[in-house]
Specification:
The complex is a heterodimer of chains A (532) and B (233).
Chain A: H1 2-29, H2 34-41, H3 44-81, H4 87-92, H5 99-110, H6 115-118, H7 129-152, H8 157-165, H9 170-199, H10 202-207, H11 216-226, H12 231-262, H13 283-294, H14 297-300, H15 307-319, H16 323-351, H17 359-368, H18 376-387, H19 398-417, H20 419-422, H21 426-434, H22 439-468, H23 471-476, H24 484-493, H25 497-522, H26 525-531
Helix pairs in contact in A: 1-12, 1-16, 1-18, 3-7, 3-9, 5-7, 5-25, 7-9, 8-9, 9-12, 11-12, 15-25, 16-19, 16-22, 18-19, 19-22, 19-26, 21-22, 22-25, 24-25
Chain B: E1 3-6, E2 13-22, E3 25-33, E4 38-42, H1 49-56, E5 67-70, E6 73-74, E7 85-88, H2 100-104, H3 106-110, H4 115-128, H5 144-156, E8 162-166, H6 174-190, E9 195-198, H7 202-208, E10 211-217, E11 223-231
Parallel strand pairs in B: 3-11, 4-9, 4-10, 7-8, 8-9
Antiparallel strand pairs in B: 2-3, 2-5, 5-6, 10-11
Helix pairs in contact in B: 5-6
C-alpha cells in the first residue's frame, strides 16, 4: 500500500507538475540565442505588463492587509471566547464565490447604470484597474482576517494575564505577546494574496476591460487565444509570472518553520477550548457578523435578475440551452475532485511513513504544494507544450481541463488532509488492537471517522473550486465542450446579460453551498489549509 | 454471564526471557504475577516502563525466544488482538468519534456480541460508576474523572485475562484518585485478573499494589533490567 501510494504520488507529480514546468522553461530558452532570449524577456510591452501586474497585486495586497489584519485580531479574540461561533464560516463564503460571478456582480454595481454608480459611489470605475483592485480586496480581505484570527486564537490568555500583572500596557502586551504569535499568519496570508492577485485572470479580464488594463495572465491568454498564435511570447509571460508567483512562495517556505512553530496547535480535530473569564462584549459578535456579511453583499446583486429571466432560464434548461454545459461542469468537478483528493490521500499515506521532522519529508511536502504557487494558465500552457500531440487546446479536452484543475487544487486537498498524518491517534489504534479489533475493524471504527470529515471537506472544496474555475476551461474548451463558467462569459459577451446573471446566481448558490458544507464539516482547519 | 463469573478461568502471568532491543535501548524482564495480584512497576522516567507494557501487549516487537505465558499459552506468538489484555492507556485513548456507550462496549462489539446485549451490559457498567445518564454523550464532553471511568469500563468489560494500567490516575485530583482507586480495587475483587500497574505515585502503590517490580537502569547506560523487589501483600 505504501509503495503503491508513493509510486502514484511521484508519477502524478512528475506528469502533472514537473513535465509541464520543464516544457515551459525549455520552450522559453530553446531555439534562440541568449541575446534574443533576453530581448524577448525584457521586451518593453512585456515589461510594462509586468509593472502593471506588480502594481495591481501589490496595491490589492496592501489594502487587504490593512483591512484584514485588525479585523483578524478582533475576530481571533472573539473566537477565543466563542470557539463554536459561525462567523468564520460566514467569513469563508467569499472563497466559494467564482471570480466570474464576482466580476459580473461588480459590473452590475459599477457599470454605467449600476447600483453604486447611480448613487455616485465609485463612478466610472468599471473597466479600470481600480475595479480589479476593488474586486480583489473584497475577495481577499476575509482570507487575511481568517488567517490572522486563527493565529490570534493561539495567544494564551494566561500570557496576557501575566503581562498585565507585570505592568504591561496594552501596547506592550500587543508588541511582546500578540504580535509574535500573529506575524507569521499575517505574512503567510499576505504572500498568498499577492500570488493570487498576480495569477488573477477572470477579474482582470472582465473588470479591466482588456488593454490598457492588461496583466501577465490576460496577456498570456491573448497570445494563445485572441491574437495571432504566439507561443514564444506566451511562454515569456508564463516565465515572468512564475518569477512573480514563486518568489513570494519561496519566502513563505523559508518562514514556514517559524509559522508552523507558532501555529502548531491548529491541527485537524483540535478545537478551541472555551476559555472562562470575561470575553469581548456581545455586540462584537454582531459587528463581526455584519462585517462578514458586508464582504458577501456585493455578490448577492446577481440575484437581482428580472423575474422573466428565471422563467427563460428554466425553459432554456428544458430546451437544452445550458443543460449540456451543466453536465460538463458536473463531470469536470467530479473528475477534478476525484483525481486531486485520491492523490492527496495517497500522498498523505506515503509521506506519513517518513520521520516527522526529517528534511526529506519537508522537501516532499514542499514539492507537493508547489502548484499553489503556479498560475492555472501557466500550468495549462505547460500541459499543452508537453502533451501537445495528445492535447490540443483548439480541439478541446475534458481530461486536460480536469488534470490542470486537479493539479492546481491538489495543494488545497493535501493541506486539508495533511494534518491527519501529524496528529496521532496512535494510542487509540493501540487501544483498539488490544480490545481485539482486526486491521479492517481498526480502520472502520477508529481511522475512518477521523478521515471522513476531511475527505468529504476536500471533495466539496475542490468540486466547488472546479465549478467556479475559468482559466483551464478557457484554455482547453472547444465548441462542443463548454462548461458553465465559459457559457456565462460567452452570454455576457453576446449581450444575453440577464440570462448570464441568472446562471451566475445559480453557480454562486452551488459553489457557496459546497464551500459552506466543506467548512462546517472540517471547521477551521480547511481554511488554514487554503491560506497556507 | 455477569462480571465476576468465570474467574476460575483466570491464570497466573509469567514473563521469561523477554528482551526488547532498539539501537540505544535494551530491556530484559523475567517475572511472575499471580491471579489476584496487583503489581506496581516502578522506575525512573524514560527507563522503559510503558515500553514494557506495550511489548507485553504486542504493540512493540520483542526478541525471538521470549515467553509471555498466561497459564499454558504463550502470548508472544499471538497478535495484540488475541492477547485478551485490558490496557488502560495514560491518556485514556478514548474513541472520540463514538459516544460513551459505544466506547465502553467496543471490546464486546469486536467479540461479535449483539448490539442489544452489549448495550445492556454497557449501561449496567455505566450505572455502577454513576455515568448512566451520559451513555449517549460524546466522550469529548466528559470531565477527566468521567473519561477515566469510561476507560476503565472499556478495558474491563470484555473480561480480560490480564490488566495493564499505565499511570492511570496521573491527571486527576487527589480526591478523585482516592475514589477511583477504591472503585478499581472493588472491581478487581470481582475480576482478579493479574494486574501490572505503571505509576510514579507512591499513593497508587500504597493503595493498589500488592507487590512491586523495579526497573533498574543507570541513566546513560542502554541496558534495563526488571527485578521483583518487594512483596507487600
Amino acid at each position: 500500500m505504501i509503495f503503491f501510494s508513493a509510486l502514484w504520488t511521484s508519477v502524478a507529480w512528475v506528469l502533472a507538475v514537473l513535465v509541464p514546468l520543464i516544457a515551459v522553461l525549455s520552450f522559453g530558452f530553446s531555439g534562440q540565442s541568449s541575446a534574443e532570449g533576453a530581448a524577448g524577456f525584457f521586451d518593453p510591452l512585456i515589461l510594462s505588463v509586468v509593472k502593471l501586474t506588480l502594481v495591481q497585486a501589490a496595491s490589492s495586497t496592501a489594502i487587504c492587509v490593512l483591512m484584514g489584519y485588525p479585523l483578524g485580531l478582533f475576530l481571533g479574540k472573539w473566537l477565543q471566547f466563542h470557539p463554536r461561533s459561525r462567523i468564520p464560516t460566514l467569513m469563508a463564503l467569499p472563497y466559494g464565490v467564482s471570480t466570474l460571478v464576482a466580476a459580473m456582480a461588480w459590473i452590475i454595481l459599477l457599470g454605467r447604470n449600476g447600483v453604486l454608480s447611480g448613487l455616485g459611489i465609485f463612478p466610472d470605475w468599471a473597466y479600470t484597474l481600480k475595479a480589479a483592485i476593488l474586486a480583489h480586496v473584497f475577495l481577499n480581505v476575509p482570507w487575511v482576517a481568517l488567517s490572522v484570527a486563527y493565529s490570534r486564537t493561539q495567544v494564551p490568555l494566561r500570557e496576557i494575564d501575566a503581562s498585565i500583572t507585570l505592568g504591561g500596557s496594552s501596547w506592550q502586551i500587543y508588541r511582546f505577546v500578540t504580535w509574535p504569535r500573529v506575524k507569521w499568519g499575517l505574512l503567510s496570508a499576505a504572500v498568498q494574496v499577492f500570488s493570487l492577485c498576480v495569477m488573477s485572470f477572470t477579474l482582470v479580464l472582465i473588470l479591466g476591460g482588456g488593454p490598457p488594463v492588461e496583466t501577465l495572465e490576460t496577456l498570456l491568454y491573448s497570445f494563445i487565444r485572441y491574437r495571432a498564435l504566439d507561443i514564444q511570447s506566451a511562454v515569456i509571460c508564463g516565465l515572468w509570472e512564475m518569477v512573480l508567483t514563486l518568489a513570494p512562495w519561496f519566502v513563505l517556505i523559508v518562514f514556514r518553520r517559524w509559522a508552523q512553530h507558532n501555529e502548531k496547535g491548529l491541527k485537524w480535530g483540535v478545537h478551541f477550548q472555551p476559555i472562562s473569564g470575561v470575553g469581548p462584549p456581545l455586540y462584537w459578535g454582531w459587528l463581526l457578523s455584519g462585517v462578514a456579511i458586508f464582504f458577501i453583499l456585493p455578490y448577492l446583486v446577481v440575484f437581482s435578475a428580472p423575474l422573466a429571466t428565471w422563467h427563460t432560464l428554466a425553459l432554456g434548461l428544458i430546451r437544452g440551452d445550458w443543460f449540456e454545459a451543466l453536465v460538463i461542469s458536473i463531470e469536470l468537478a467530479c473528475l477534478s475532485a476525484a483525481l486531486s483528493v485520491l492523490t492527496a490521500i495517497l500522498a498523505v499515506f506515503s509521506l506519513k511513513t517518513l520521520p516527522r521532522m526529517s528534511p526529506l519529508r519537508r522537501l516532499f511536502e514542499t514539492l507537493l504544494t508547489l502548484p499553489s504557487g503556479l498560475s492555472i494558465l501557466v500550468l495549462a500552457l505547460g500541459f499543452w507544450l508537453a502533451y501537445g500531440q495528445w492535447v490540443d487546446p483548439f480541439e478541446g479536452s475534458l481530461a486536460a481541463m480536469a488534470s490542470v484543475q486537479a493539479t492546481v487544487f491538489f495543494p488545497l486537498a493535501f493541506r486539508i488532509l495533511w494534518p491527519l498524518s501529524e496528529i496521532g491517534s496512535f494510542t487509540q489504534l493501540d487501544a483498539a488492537f488490544t480490545l481485539g479489533a482486526s486491521r479492517f475493524q481498526v480502520f472502520r471504527w477508529v481511522e475512518w471517522p477521523r478521515w471522513r470529515g476531511p475527505v468529504v471537506s476536500s471533495i466539496a472544496a475542490v468540486a466547488g473550486g472546479s465549478l467556479a474555475e475559468l482559466g483551464a476551461v478557457s484554455f482547453f474548451y472547444s465548441e462542443k465542450l463548454i462548461p458553465l463558467p465559459l457559457l456565462i462569459s460567452r452570454w455576457m459577451a453576446k449581450y444575453r446579460f440577464d440570462e448570464a446573471q441568472g446562471l451566475a446566481a445559480f453557480l454562486l448558490l452551488v459553489s457557496c453551498f459546497l464551500i459552506f458544507f466543506a467548512f462546517r464539516i472540517g471547521r477551521m482547519s480547511e481554511m488554514r489549509g487554503v491560506l497556507r | 454471564m455477569s462480571f465476576g463469573e468465570g474467574t476460575s478461568q483466570l491464570e497466573d502471568f509469567t514473563v521469561r526471557n523477554l528482551k526488547v532491543t532498539w539501537p540505544d535501548f535494551s530491556l530484559s524482564a523475567d517475572f511472575q504475577i499471580r491471579v489476584g495480584e496487583r503489581v506496581a512497576l516502578i522506575g525512573k522516567s524514560g527507563s522503559g516502563k510503558t515500553t514494557l507494557l506495550r511489548a507485553l501487549a504486542g504493540l512493540e516487537p520483542v526478541e525471538p525466544g521470549a515467553e509471555i505465558l498466561l497459564g499454558g499459552r504463550n502470548l508472544a506468538v499471538l497478535p495484540a488482538q488475541k492477547r485478551e489484555i485490558g490496557f488502560l492507556f495514560q491518556d485514556h485513548a478514548l474513541f472520540e468519534s463514538m459516544n460513551v456507550l459505544d466506547n465502553c462496549t467496543f471490546a464486546l462489539r469486536m467479540q461479535g456480541v449483539a448490539r442489544s446485549i452489549r448495550d445492556e451490559e454497557g449501561r449496567r457498567w455505566l450505572k455502577k460508576v454513576s455515568l448512566a445518564e451520559h451513555a449517549l454523550s460524546s466522550v469529548t464532553t466528559l470531565s477527566g474523572g468521567e473519561r477515566q471511568r469510561v476507560a476503565f469500563i472499556r478495558a474491563l468489560i470484555g473480561r480480560p485475562r490480564l490488566i495493564f494500567l499505565d499511570e492511570p490516575f496521573s491527571s486527576l485530583d487527589l480526591e478523585l484518585r482516592e475514589t477511583l482507586r477504591r472503585e478499581f480495587r472493588d472491581l478487581h475483587t470481582l475480576w482478579p485478573a493479574p494486574v501490572l500497574l505503571v505509576t510514579h505515585d507512591e499513593g497508587d502503590i500504597l493503595a493498589l499494589a500488592t507487590a512491586r517490580l523495579k526497573l533498574r537502569w543507570d541513566s546513560g547506560h542502554p541496558d534495563r533490567k526488571i527485578t521483583r523487589e518487594l512483596t507487600t501483600g
